[in-house]
Amino acid sequence: MPSLTFVLPHWMYWGGLVLLPFVAMFIVRRQQRSGLGGGVSLATAYLFWITAGFVGIHRFYLRNWWGLIYIPLFIGILLVNVEGRKAREISSRTHSAVQIAEYNLERATAMQSEGREGAAEQVAATQAELERVRPEYESAVATQARWFGRAGWLAALIAALLLLDAALLPGLVRRCAAREGGLRPLATMAVVDPVEKGTHSAPGSRVRTPLTDFVDKINGFVGEFVSYWSLLAVFVYYYEVLARYVFNSPTNWAHESMFLMFGMQYLLSGGFAFREDSHVRVDVLYVMLPDRVKVVLDLVTSVFFFLFAGALLVTGYIFVRDAIGYWEVSFTEWAIQYWPVKVALPLGALLILLQGAARVVKNITFLQTKEA
Predict the structure, then answer these.
(1) Full domain range(s) for residue 238
(2) Quick one: pLDDT at residue 2?
(3) Which of 64, 117, 286, 294 is deepest in the core (most CB within 10 A)?
(4) What's the mean pLDDT in 140-162?
(5) Are 243 and 336 in the same domain?
(6) How high is the pLDDT of residue 281?
(7) Are 215 and 162 within one domain?
(8) CB neighbours of 102 closer than 8 A, spacing ≥ 6?
(9) At 36, which helix (H) or strand (E)?
(10) CA 40, CA 182: separation in Å to the nearest integer?
């Protein structure tokens, strides 16, 4: 199998983090407006064909069991590549032995030409060593080429099947849609009740004012936006596994890119989690208190929250200022820019501070209501 040398460009990484959530939100909202769901889609079928067609996922999506033919071919590639990697290790080891023997022979020959004592015996010994290791190296190279050649033939067979399916997909989609009755209204589809978000044990979280609604919408948008970053992780780690185990080409950017992305997601979604009352709290006693006592307790303890969030905002600003001043990059081969990552520190702190201020307004408003 050929090696993959693709390295994710920095502009593509940052562009994907910005553009993919907008595309995903557009698709979700369009389907929600249409009121239709279920059925099969030609675009989705081709997406599966491109990304996971080598194991027949596009066929399984269309309820076509001919996709099973892809699985043994792909398993064959994995098994052949294991043997190919073993042969490559032997080839590398014997190649080093050949180079050492050639170097020793060259030195012994030079010593013999200078008439040094014992040089002739050393030439004979090193020449015998070279004659011993060279066939081993040539045999290892031939074995490596044979195993990788078999992997290439299996890959070519999968590629031929995929090209055939590329032409057959429209017909397969039409037949599958006919069997399933096409698209169905979302209201008629079986819907599983979603798990309740957060504890919602804070009484003040149920209060609404124009100001707090505005802050809720901001953090709601940011929370939804960064949630779609998880889709990127699916594609990136999918590529990493495929490159590592099928093409013997592990990347030097997949882990770092996702590590940084999830760090930014964690920081930016803090305000949304606060809005949904999903942050971890020790509420063994809290849940048993009356609503009015809960609200008063939330107002008192919010002092510590603002101290923490304020410290995060100030220190985050210092980190960002220094990172931008030096145009900081990571100490890796990928050398990704660090300053956009550190921007998430003060920005996340600002979002959670806004949500904390909105919670204080809600709590005060709750105390002022007749029901409280």
Answers:
(1) 204-368
(2) 62
(3) 294
(4) 90
(5) yes
(6) 77
(7) no
(8) 130
(9) strand 36-37
(10) 7
Pair 227, 300 in one domain: yes
Give the pLDDT confidence of 47-94 residue by residue, as tens digits: 889 888 889 999 999 989 999 999 999 999 888 888 888 888 899 999
Res 182: pLDDT: 53
What is the rounded CA–CA span in Å between residue 341 and residue 324?
Answer: 11
79 and 176 together in one domain: yes
Residues 155 and 232 occupy one common structural domain: no
Tokens representing 108 are: 């012994």
Which residues, in sequence order, are CB contacts of 62 under 8 Å at separation 6+? 40, 45, 172, 173, 176
Domain-embedded: residue 196 = no
Specify if 6 maps to a domain: no
Q: Are residues 299 and 174 in the same domain?
A: no
- What's the CA gap between 363 and 294, in Å, rounded? 9
Token readout for 73 is 């071919």
3-state secondary structure of 164: helix
Question: 325, 317 in Cβ contact below 8 A?
Answer: no
Tokens of 153: 């033939």
Residue 317 has a CB neighbour count (10 Å cut-off) of 17
Q: Are residues 156 and 234 in the same domain?
A: no
Among 263, 274, 259, 278, smallest CA distance to 309 is for 274
| Separation CA 354–CA 372 (nearest Å) | 24
3-state secondary structure of 144: helix
- The pLDDT value recorded for residue 112 is 83
C-alpha–C-alpha distance, residues 60 and 143, integer Å: 36
Helices in the chain by DSSP H: which ranges?
10-34, 42-52, 57-61, 70-113, 119-180, 210-227, 229-245, 254-268, 270-275, 291-326, 339-368
